[in-house]
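ingest -> validate -> predict -> emit
validate: passed (alphabet ok, no gaps, 224 aa)
predict: started
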Amino acid sequence: MKPLPRSFYLRPTLKVARDLLGKCIVRKIGSKLIIGKIVEVEAYCERDSASHTFHGRSNRNEVMFGEGGHLYVYFTYGMHFCSNVVTGAEGAGEAVLIRAVEPLTGIEVMTKNRQKGRLHLSDGVFLNRADLINLTNGPAKFCQAFGITRKENGADLCQSKESPARDRHLRSSASLATVTSTIFIIDGTTIPLSLTGRSARIGIRTALDKKWRFFVKGNPWVSR
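emit:
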């Protein structure tokens, strides 16, 4: 499996966001492999009042100001992680939030990560479709299912081998000095414009006029 090249992420953020639909995100946890198809994203651009970078650099958003092709992970509501694909040249401060994916490989691992012991598997297939959809149909659910935490903040998505986290706080901690992450995005299905939906972004209070949420029409894993 070959990761998407850096050049894919260095393009305009709205273009990257649209083109991420149908791509597959790959996560390796030990010997376990997890793969999901991206079906919903949101773009956050420079001078965007809804973006984490609108008020400038901070310890929290430092990775988002880096070069495109890295993962920006943040903690929200005191309980959830959300992950973003950094886009553009270094210093741009732009990214695309991954809102939902369709699980393809490693469903049993995702289930354990989501602590859904009540789900029953038969040859890797869920007996309850509603539970399968609930597995990754939201940004926090996706991160939990894929085992993505702050440890993955700054991971290089253009490598298919373990890459050290770039988060300065993780690097400076002796106990986390060897933290590594294996996560990348590969080519997948091309989503035609006829099946691409657009809307305002979800859960924000400003820039409501910007239709920077992109999703695959009719896909049941889209959050709403």
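Residues 168-181 have pLDDT under 50 and may be disordered.
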